[in-house]
Amino acid sequence: MSDASQTTAPTRLQRQVLTVAIVASFMAILDSFVVSLALPAIGRELGGGLRIQQWVVDAYLLTLGALILAAGSLSDHFGRVRVLQWGLGGFALTSILCGAAWTGEILVVSRGLQRVAGALLVPSSLALIVSHFDSAAQGSAIGKWSAWTSAAAVVAPLIGGVSVDLLSWRVIFFVNVLPAAAIWPVLAKLRKADAATSSAGIDIAGALLAVVALGGPVYGLIEQGSAGWGSPQVWLPLAAGLVATVLFLVHESRSAAPLLPLRMFTVRNFGWGNIATAAIYGGFSLGFFALGIYIQQVGGMKATTAGLALLPSTVILMLLASFFGGLAGKYGPRWFMTAGPVLCAAGFLLTLSVGGSLNYWTQILPGQVVFGLGLSMTVAPLTAAILGSVPEKQAGVGSAVNNAVSRIAGLVCIAFAGFIVGPELTTPGLHRALLATAALLLLGGVCSAVGIRNPVPVSPANPASPR
Prior knowledge:
Elements: H1 12-33, H2 39-46, H3 49-78, H4 80-99, H5 104-118, H6 121-132, H7 135-166, H8 171-174, H9 177-191, H10 204-227, H11 232-254, H12 268-297, H13 303-309, H14 312-331, H15 334-350, H16 360-387, H17 395-415, H18 417-421, H19 427-451
């Protein structure tokens, strides 16, 4: 890493790196959520019923879960910028294919291909930041990245709703070409300084096993909502995923050039950080899944209004994430990762006041403000602690593991939402979901307090801070 990353103000190169990382990741995450309000319009035009609508969303999630580890390994092997170029070019082309889809089936296939390209974007983006920023500067940069990428998940339904109301659902895909074209020249310049960080070969067998190990459970969890746990199309992929996971772990332990170096999990902050990630992001997914449905179906809000109602936490995140990321880089992430989830849990517990006639200003907004403050303290320190604990040459696969953990934790928690809220989401069901969410977030805070350790400060007597 360059000495420039130690300066207070980012260099021109660092600003370019951060811009590219944010835009590329924003595009990938935005398209995970942007279609939600466009599904009725897609159904009216292309047909196919509810199943096609479900798979327009789920094809994107399935390919992400299946390919994220392989994408991280490619980033480490071929270089961050090169893999970002592959992902960005593929994402633009498949977005055009999505927008031009003439049947529901073509749209589903195109969405799957779009996520193949999108899987290359997020791990490479984070790894690019890690390779160009150090210490507090790295924490601040990850904070900005976290704020903007988290914002993508919230503003996506608004963008989708406005596009459908004023133009066409196809616009939400065609628009991806614009940011891709805007950052392509910057990527071309960064490519000159780009280099592979791993000279080892690609672990093809490990990659194939990882696809089944991650893709099988994701497919099963997606299908169980409509087919039920007893269906072969649910338990067969789950069983295949379990077998593939065992074979993957055995293979990786014996491979000379593993896709996922298992010793990474013996690094304290990486192992405990991913345990905390599973609890925290599982809580986030469950809480917002239940709350988002409740304020529409029971509270009577329209979809766009519901999106606006949950926006304050994202605004707070965008304002404060870089600040807390910088503080965590300076003082260490441990207590930020402890206090942040506790505040997030308090925000959801405040929302237990929901009942009877919904009053947004007294029942929803206070909890969103407290949650937003906790979220700002959590996201960047958590990411920085995990990526800062692994060697720079493995930042791509480290980021991929953390992304896979957070996404699959969310899928698992949403899959079990029916057991928590009951067959129909009522006020008591919402309260149970909020309590379960708070419990998961508190668990994440406890794991951080117990497991995370702050790095030893760099000093002349201690020239290298251990990861």
